[in-house]
TrEMBL record:
UniProt-annotated binding residues for 4-amino-2-methyl-5-(diphosphooxymethyl)pyrimidine: 36-40, 68, 107, 136
Swiss-Prot/TrEMBL cofactor(s): Mg(2+)
GO biological process, one term: thiamine diphosphate biosynthetic process
InterPro entries: Aldolase_TIM, ThiamineP_synth_sf, ThiamineP_synth_TenI, TMP_synthase
Protein name: Thiamine-phosphate synthase
HAMAP family cross-referenced by the UniProt entry: TMP_synthase
Catalytic activity: 2-[(2R,5Z)-2-carboxy-4-methylthiazol-5(2H)-ylidene]ethyl phosphate + 4-amino-2-methyl-5-(diphosphooxymethyl)pyrimidine + 2 H(+) = thiamine phosphate + CO2 + diphosphate; 4-methyl-5-(2-phosphooxyethyl)-thiazole + 4-amino-2-methyl-5-(diphosphooxymethyl)pyrimidine + H(+) = thiamine phosphate + diphosphate; 2-(2-carboxy-4-methylthiazol-5-yl)ethyl phosphate + 4-amino-2-methyl-5-(diphosphooxymethyl)pyrimidine + 2 H(+) = thiamine phosphate + CO2 + diphosphate
Residue numbers binding 2-[(2R,5Z)-2-carboxy-4-methylthiazol-5(2H)-ylidene]ethyl phosphate: 133-135, 167, 187-188
Sequence ranges assigned to domain Thiamine phosphate synthase/TenI in this UniProt record: 6-190
Family affiliation: Belongs to the thiamine-phosphate synthase family.
Gene name for this UniProt entry: thiE
Record's function text: Condenses 4-methyl-5-(beta-hydroxyethyl)thiazole monophosphate (THZ-P) and 2-methyl-4-amino-5-hydroxymethyl pyrimidine pyrophosphate (HMP-PP) to form thiamine monophosphate (TMP).
GO (cellular component) term, any one: cytoplasm
Cofactor binding note: Binds 1 Mg(2+) ion per subunit.
Length: 211
């Protein structure tokens, strides 16, 4: 059973000079339910080596661990799954490679894309960017602020779980969940926080108030 409430996406360049494994360990202490290894500016080898540490941390804590984009790295790390974007392998191909038990996510920003991803066999969606974000690194270049009305429309259109991502903070997380998201995915709300554990816990409480 996946805990979607608070979903952490890692990015060392947005982590206030702290190591990703330190932030992940603290975020897990604060209640994060899913950790995604992102680190798009690192080589495949570097992502793999960092992933070994994160896989150990998440496995010990019983936290779901997924890899952004790279099906091969997800396989090598025995991750719980992979999260795919528009430029990555199609969902059915990832399913064939990773197997029926793998968790396969898909980034979407429209109702049509959400329906297509669900029909293709995605297990969950990342919907966004919900709000304008302070850093372009937080979202892909082709994403934009879709707002909570789009979140609500996607909630009506698909039956699979999804998390909202993009510009989400403790202050606006409740709006995203009230609109129909199963939880919130964040980078800087945790990675740049003075206390990542406290930030994760605050987000958890905000989500719980909205459910």
């Amino acid at each position: 059973m996946v805990d979607w409430d608070v979903y952490l996406v890692t990015q060392a360049s947005l982590s206030a000079d702290r190591t990703t494994d330190e932030i992940v360990a603290e975020a897990i202490d604060g209640g994060v339910g899913v950790v995604q290894l992102r680190e798009k500016d690192r080589t495949a080898r570097e992502r793999y080596e960092l992933g070994l540490e994160l896989r150990e941390l998440t496995r010990e804590a019983g936290v779901t661990f997924v890899v952004n984009d790279r099906v091969d790295i997800a396989q090598a790390l025995d991750a719980d799954g992979v999260h795919l974007g528009d430029d990555d392998l199609p969902v059915p191909v990832a399913r064939e490679l990773l197997g029926d038990d793998a968790l396969i996510g898909r980034s979407v920003s429209t109702v049509e894309d959400a329906r297509e991803a669900a029909a293709a066999g995605a297990d969950y969606l990342g919907v966004g960017a919900v709000f304008a974000t302070g850093s372009k690194d937080d979202i892909d270049d082709d994403e934009y602020a879709v707002g909570t009305d789009r979140v609500a429309a996607i909630a009506e259109a698909v039956d699979i779980p999804f998390v909202g991502i993009g510009g989400i903070t403790t202050e606006n997380a409740t709006e995203v969940v009230e609109a129909g998201a199963g939880g919130v995915a964040v980078i800087t709300a945790i990675t740049r926080a003075d206390d990542p554990a406290a930030a994760a816990e605050a987000l958890q409480h905000a989500v719980e108030r909205s459910q």
